[in-house]
Amino acid sequence: GPDLWRLLADYGERAAFVDLETDGLHYGARITVIACLWRGRLHTFVCDENLDDFLDLLQEVELLVTFNGASFDVPLIRHGFHIPELPCAHLDLRWVCYHAGWRGGLKAVEQQLGLHRPADLVGVDGAEAVDLWTCWEQQRSRPHRDLLVRYCGADAVALRGVAGALLAHWGCTCPWPAG
Predict the structure, then answer these.
(1) What's the CA gap between 112 and 7, in Å, rounded?
(2) What's the pTM value of the predicted model, to 2 decimals?
(3) What does DSSP say about strands 15-22 and 41-46: parallel, antiparallel, or unpaired?
(4) Is-contact 21 148, C-beta < 8 A?
(5) Tens-digit pLDDT profile for the chain (179 aa)?
(6) Which three-class secondary structure state does DSSP give residue 133?
(7) CA distance 51 to 136
(8) Burial letters for 85-112: b for 16+ Cβ neighbours within 10 Å, e otherwise?
(9) Are 52 and 77 contacting, i.e. CB atoms less than 8 angstroms apart?
(10) DSSP 74
């Protein structure tokens, strides 16, 4: 319901902001990159490199915060890692934002809040993320891989910014350091 934002205040620094990218925009798509902003540090996990390490981190997380994660990220995590459920609570900011009057996807909400991404990431979206992975996989183009990882990380960082704006919207102090 509309009071779910209180979880952000209750969990505070124990919340982890997570975004993932896939090799396609369909159920059953393979996870290619996961970014997790947790305890002030951005952790990135890449397919065929260290993706399974995300499960170890997930065991320590108490609240997983996503945007549209109930429909996308969480089912993909459960499917991709063969786990029946998350080992922690989950909060999908999409609906919390909706109740605050901020509509649309993560980038639209960021724009409504005046949050900005690095210039080279403006305009990159989920479809382009799939293309970036394809270029990395087929050509081993390191710039494509690195841009994809940075894009995913920017989404995780943006989630924390949106969460802070939600807390401010309801008159709560933000528990995360700025930046």
Answers:
(1) 22
(2) 0.94
(3) unpaired
(4) yes
(5) 568 888 898 998 889 999 999 999 777 789 999 999 999 999 999 999 999 999 999 999 999 999 999 999 999 999 999 999 999 999 999 989 999 999 999 999 999 999 999 999 988 998 899 999 999 999 999 999 999 999 999 999 999 999 999 999 888 887 776 55
(6) helix
(7) 16
(8) eeebebbbbbebbeebebeeebbebbeb
(9) no
(10) H
